[in-house]
């Protein structure tokens, strides 16, 4: 691989080396860049000004270096931003969802960065703004709204915000009668809460110093937060915890889970002083979720070997596992993703043969029917309902060529009403594009799905550049949904492709199992197989492929860079989880203990240590001819800490053999999700796309139509 001529020659920051050593299971590692981790990281997440001045200087030098290498894309980034912004309806709003006398929704004002929450009379009328995100964000470099929940009596609003990017949310209560905030303001929460039945208090999770939701508390309005009643404390740092309620306002549900085990505790919403009751004790590998059903709970579970899940019921008076009864049996290859209960119906979202589908079941007759769609690949979502006793449920539909559509569906009459189609103000003609679903042969014979879109005029002779996106962890499926942003690449002749690699649930739960822990290497080899298949099918060439992934997908980017750098012309790793072994060896970090079921516990297991060490990107950087690499991060990110990509970039520059640059761009005022405003986020995407266009030799395509 020769040095890319797209970038000017410039001297990157020289990262000081300070060797430290650690030994586990007889293996000793040397880490020259561990000093980039701030010793006071917990305090710094709450107050970024506390960052060590030497670390800050290094990060600012990285930003200065990437600015030099990307300086010639300034006009291109402006053009990309304008295009992407032009596809957004600036004063867009959701379709309000009915609840009692009102319907609730969210909207944006022209030029607004943050959403506004509003309500309108149930059958139509004047909107009433309940919460204005732009007003709350004024003067703050970062602002992100968390949960927003109106009380059942429609008199109060419980809402959360994060103004550091570190995901320590503050809860606040607004009186909807006069618009004033009550004195009930609680910091360091998980980002949401749920009202009790009397609407005179709420339940919430409190984060500890290590950013873990370790306590569920009840706050009585008007009381001091110091007096909040502890409802439940989770002492095992390996479990996440959240608290929610049911639409009937009858139950409070405390959910406790890691990536393979779950547990629920229940209490009546009208009795905040009661002790929560255990449903089924946590049992390693047993997963279950609860959904209300009147005098029963619906239970979505993998119990009794139901790998792709089944649905059971249990009486609300005593929903212990001994009382679970099967309703919808397990069917191998049909993965049930979620269920939604109504007074007369049960709705489930499931995935079969790689595609989602919605099934509606009449609770009285047990008759089922499907909601059908015609496209080759598409995305579905259940939007739910505020109301339980209703015949109407809401869902969303889109494909890579079809803008998002919102439907209300009558479960009795089977009438489908289109409420809204996503507007693209600058125009969108689906006939200009082609979407396909390919199957790439993996090295072990499995077929890996690829969803892709390209302009109908793009030549498929191997000359087109390609952005290949991947994730492949935690069972998350990347939907083949409409993405207005990627059209800026597609209109410039790119093939935009999604590799549905193992580690997601695209082909059932087994697809997830085959891409985690000891089988994690399949995620990486699948992605490489997808790249090779796209080349074999003449969609692109290896030197024209820009790989992209974020978070755990950024780990994927680091791994494929080490395993097959020759297969890619460029790599974009966003908030990349690249120092996997070091992080999994540090039980003090926010997500480490809950992540052990996903990656393995290298502290306790020599086998897990060896497995992770074999692919951890930071540990496997070698004297290879890497393509140009762009790493991006946020300073206050508690999920993938900034020092992981900072260390990775330093080691890449130290060890690589080729002359291609490694860029590191860090947002000093954000966390894991990047910029918080909808337009400032577009500026970050424009930067990423400019890098991809630069690598592909398309940076001069200022007009979107120029290359097609």
Automatic annotation (TrEMBL):
<dbReference type="InterPro" id="IPR051543">
    <property type="entry name" value="Serine_Peptidase_S9A"/>
</dbReference>
<feature type="compositionally biased region" description="Polar residues">
    <location>
        <begin position="1"/>
        <end position="14"/>
    </location>
</feature>
<protein>
    <submittedName>
        <fullName>S9 family peptidase</fullName>
    </submittedName>
</protein>
<keyword id="KW-0720">Serine protease</keyword>
<keyword id="KW-0378">Hydrolase</keyword>
<dbReference type="Pfam" id="PF00326">
    <property type="entry name" value="Peptidase_S9"/>
</dbReference>
<feature type="domain" description="Peptidase S9A N-terminal">
    <location>
        <begin position="12"/>
        <end position="421"/>
    </location>
</feature>
<dbReference type="InterPro" id="IPR001375">
    <property type="entry name" value="Peptidase_S9_cat"/>
</dbReference>
<dbReference type="InterPro" id="IPR029058">
    <property type="entry name" value="AB_hydrolase_fold"/>
</dbReference>
<comment type="similarity">
    <text>Belongs to the peptidase S9A family.</text>
</comment>
<dbReference type="InterPro" id="IPR002470">
    <property type="entry name" value="Peptidase_S9A"/>
</dbReference>
<feature type="domain" description="Peptidase S9 prolyl oligopeptidase catalytic">
    <location>
        <begin position="481"/>
        <end position="698"/>
    </location>
</feature>
<feature type="region of interest" description="Disordered">
    <location>
        <begin position="1"/>
        <end position="23"/>
    </location>
</feature>
<keyword id="KW-0645">Protease</keyword>
<dbReference type="InterPro" id="IPR023302">
    <property type="entry name" value="Pept_S9A_N"/>
</dbReference>
<dbReference type="Pfam" id="PF02897">
    <property type="entry name" value="Peptidase_S9_N"/>
</dbReference>
């Amino acid at each position: 691989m020769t040095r890319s001529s797209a970038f000017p020659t410039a001297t990157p920051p020289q990262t000081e080396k300070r060797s430290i050593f650690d030994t586990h299971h007889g293996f000793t590692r040397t880490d020259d860049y561990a000093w980039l981790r701030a010793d006071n990281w917990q305090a710094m997440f709450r107050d970024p000004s506390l960052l060590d001045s030497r670390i800050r200087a290094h990060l600012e030098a990285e930003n200065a270096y990437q600015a030099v290498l990307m300086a010639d894309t300034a006009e291109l980034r402006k053009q990309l931003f304008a295009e992407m912004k032009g596809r957004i309806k600036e004063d867009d709003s959701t379709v309000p969802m009915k609840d009692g006398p009102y319907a609730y929704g969210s909207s944006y004002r022209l030029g607004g960065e943050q959403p506004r929450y509003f309500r309108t009379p149930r059958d139509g009328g004047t909107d009433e703004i309940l919460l204005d995100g732009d007003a709350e964000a004024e003067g703050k470099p970062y602002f992100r709204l968390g949960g927003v929940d109106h009380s059942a009596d429609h008199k109060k609003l419980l809402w959360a915000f994060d103004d550091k990017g570190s995901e320590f949310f503050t809860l606040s209560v607004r009186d909807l009668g006069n618009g004033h905030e009550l004195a009930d303001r609680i910091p360091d929460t998980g980002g949401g809460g749920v009202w009790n039945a009397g609407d005179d208090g709420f339940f919430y999770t409190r984060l500890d110093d290590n950013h873990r939701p370790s306590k569920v508390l009840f706050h009585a309005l008007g009381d001091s937060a110091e007096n909040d009643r502890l409802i439940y404390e989770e002492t095992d740092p390996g479990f996440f915890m959240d608290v929610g309620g049911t639409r009937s306002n009858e139950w409070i549900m405390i959910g406790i889970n890691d990536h393979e085990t779950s547990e629920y505790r229940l209490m009546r919403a009208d009795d905040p002083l009661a002790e929560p009751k255990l449903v089924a004790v946590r049992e390693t590998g047993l997963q279950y979720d609860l959904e209300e059903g009147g005098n029963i709970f619906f239970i979505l579970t993998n119990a009794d070997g139901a790998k792709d899940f089944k649905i059971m019921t249990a009486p609300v008076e005593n929903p212990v596992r001994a009382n679970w009864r099967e309703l919808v049996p397990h069917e191998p290859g049909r993965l049930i993703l979620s269920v939604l209960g109504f007074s007369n119906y049960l709705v489930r979202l499931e995935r079969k043969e790689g595609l989602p589908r919605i099934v509606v079941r009449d609770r009285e007759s047990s008759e089922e029917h499907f909601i059908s769609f015609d496209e080759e690949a598409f995305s579905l979502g259940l939007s739910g309902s505020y109301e339980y006793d209703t015949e109407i449920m809401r869902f969303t539909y889109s494909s890579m060529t079809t803008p998002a559509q919102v439907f209300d569906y009558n479960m009795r009459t089977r009438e489908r009403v289109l409420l809204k189609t996503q507007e693209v103000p600058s125009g969108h003609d689906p006939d200009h594009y082609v979407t396909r679903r390919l199957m790439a042969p993996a090295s072990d014979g499995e077929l890996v799905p690829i969803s892709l879109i390209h302009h109908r005029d793009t030549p498929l002779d191997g000359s087109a550049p390609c952005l290949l996106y991947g994730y492949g962890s935690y069972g998350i499926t990347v939907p083949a949904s409409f993405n207005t942003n990627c059209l800026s690449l597609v209109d410039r002749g790119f093939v935009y492709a999604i590799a549905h690699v193992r580690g997601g649930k695209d082909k059932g739960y087994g697809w997830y199992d085959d891409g985690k822990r000891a089988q994690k290497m399949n995620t990486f080899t699948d992605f490489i197989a997808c790249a090779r298949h796209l080349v074999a099918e003449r969609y692109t060439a290896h030197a024209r492929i820009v790989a992209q992934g974020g978070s755990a997908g950024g780990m994927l980017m680091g791994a494929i860079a080490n395993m097959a750098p020759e297969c890619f012309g460029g790599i974009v790793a966003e908030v990349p989880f690249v120092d996997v072994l070091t992080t999994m060896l540090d039980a003090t970090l926010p997500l480490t203990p809950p992540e052990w079921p996903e990656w393995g516990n290298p502290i306790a297991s020599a086998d897990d240590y060896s497995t992770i060490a074999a692919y951890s990107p930071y540990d496997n950087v070698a004297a290879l001819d890497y393509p140009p690499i762009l790493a991006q991060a946020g300073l206050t990110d508690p999920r993938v800490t900034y020092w992981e990509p900072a260390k990775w970039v330093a080691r890449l520059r130290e060890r690589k053999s080729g002359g291609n640059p490694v860029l590191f761009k860090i947002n000093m005022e954000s966390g894991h999700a990047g910029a918080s405003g909808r337009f400032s986020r577009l500026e970050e995407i424009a930067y990423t796309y400019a890098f991809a266009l630069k690598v592909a030799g398309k940076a001069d395509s200022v007009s979107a139509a120029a290359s097609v």
